[in-house]
Design a protein that fits this description.
Elements (H helix, E strand, L loop, with lengths): L1 H12 L1 H4 L5 H29 L5 H30 L1 H25 L17 E3 L5 E3 L1
Antiparallel strand pairs: 1-2
Helix pairs in contact: 1-3, 1-5, 3-4, 4-5
Length: 142
């Protein structure tokens, strides 16, 4: 939620730039805020991708989920640029803010359907090493 609010505020701060009347200091501050907000959103997205990855196929699951997000981002950016050519950047920015707000609401409602329940760790833990005998008689601790 913090990322969505930050992304909304930072996009609002960029509206003067999109209208062609932006002071340098305000533009630098708005762009810094936007990059921080975008980073927060990416951290949340990749954390959720890791949470949904299965232990046995985590690398593949994470890659597929992340690739899907990147493809959606590429398509959305293409549509946004085409729309900005027709209606202007400020209108597209306002539409993006509406989409971010909708995404935050949908994301929160989705995450509330699946509350986090801590459970026992799967597999051996660091406190309980398992010993395996090697062919040469040296014990390996995993």
């Amino acid at each position: 939620m913090v990322g969505g609010v930050a992304l909304t505020v930072s996009t609002l701060l960029l509206l003067p730039l999109m209208n062609g009347r932006a002071p340098l200091g305000g533009t630098v501050a708005a762009l810094c805020c936007f990059m921080v907000a975008y980073t927060i959103a990416n951290v949340v997205l990749y954390t959720v991708n890791m949470d949904y990855s299965r232990p046995d196929t985590g690398g593949t699951d994470f890659t597929v989920l992340s690739s899907f997000g990147l493809v959606c981002s590429f398509v959305a950016a293409s549509i946004g640029l085409a729309a900005a050519d027709r209606v202007g950047y400020p209108a597209v920015a306002v539409a993006a803010i509406v989409l971010v707000a909708a995404g935050v609401v949908l994301g929160l409602s989705h995450q509330r359907r699946f509350p986090h329940r801590p459970g026992p760790a799967v597999g051996p833990t660091a406190e309980q090493p398992t010993e395996q005998s090697a062919v040469d008689g040296v014990k390996a601790v995993a």
